[in-house]
Amino acid sequence: MEQGLGFSHFLNQIDGVGIGVLVLLLSLSIASWYLIITKSIANLIAKRRVEAFLKHFWSYDSLQTARIELKNAVPDNAFSELAKMSIDATSDSKIRNIHKSLTAEGTNEFLTRTLRNGIDQEATRVENGLTLIATAGSAAPYIGLFGTVWGIYHALIQIGLSGQGTLDKVAGPVGEALIMTALGLAVAIPAVLAYNAFVRRNRIWLARLEAFAHDLFVLITAGDNTDASISSSAQSRHEIDANSIDIVMDRGQ
């Protein structure tokens, strides 16, 4: 059997098509790993910021205090941005002048649209990059398989031209061609695992954000007519009729 068979020997034997397949797999691997690492770090930072914000937010004495604190604050996470959007929308003097001619239901619908808008924007943001990761996970095995088929075809042509069709002459080149399939799987498996993890995280994240939007809706609509503190609202917010809130929120969908 020929000596020196391996990946380096395979690289010396492949043609332009094989090199193109390798470059494509390498590009998918680099892109997917870049997104996996950056999104993982961003998600960890966002989680810590949200925990700190929620702890601070629910400790406010009143909705007016929250308005003052958030008025000039720069949001650093989706929850603080949603709170700022909703409070600004209902405290803006121009909006209030418009609301004077509206019923209470019309005002609630305006707040609902604002909250739904913020949730949709965050849903779009967290899904950024997932398409590329999913593409790497689904397409890489087939790209690697194509490289294997092409490599075997190329090897068999060379063997046929040399007239040496013995097993020891065929096994080496065919075995080298299978490297392409292994590379395709090496690219796909981490991408698939990461995609599933990100999808699950995003589902939980958006569910928490929507629950926070429900709390904001009740807090803001009730806050204009009561002096109850936000901290006390935090303790009792889960006792509110969720069905009535869901009906209002669903109007914005």
Automatic annotation (TrEMBL):
It is a multi-pass membrane protein. The keyword Nucleotidyltransferase does not apply. It comes from the Bacteria. Pfam families: MotA_ExbB (PF01618). Keywords: Cell inner membrane, Cell membrane, Membrane, Protein transport, Transmembrane, Transmembrane helix, Transport. It is found in: Cell inner membrane; Membrane. The chain crosses the membrane at residues 17-37, 130-157, 177-198. InterPro entries: ExbB/TolQ_transport (IPR050790), MotA_ExbB_proton_chnl (IPR002898). Residues 101-210 form the MotA/TolQ/ExbB proton channel domain. GO terms for cellular component: plasma membrane. Its main location: membrane. GO terms for biological process: protein import. The accessory proteins ExbB and ExbD seem to form a complex with TonB. Involved in the TonB-dependent energy-dependent transport of various receptor-bound substrates. Protects ExbD from proteolytic degradation and functionally stabilizes TonB. PANTHER family: BIOPOLYMER TRANSPORT PROTEIN EXBB, PROTEIN TOLQ. Belongs to the exbB/tolQ family. This is Biopolymer transport protein ExbB.
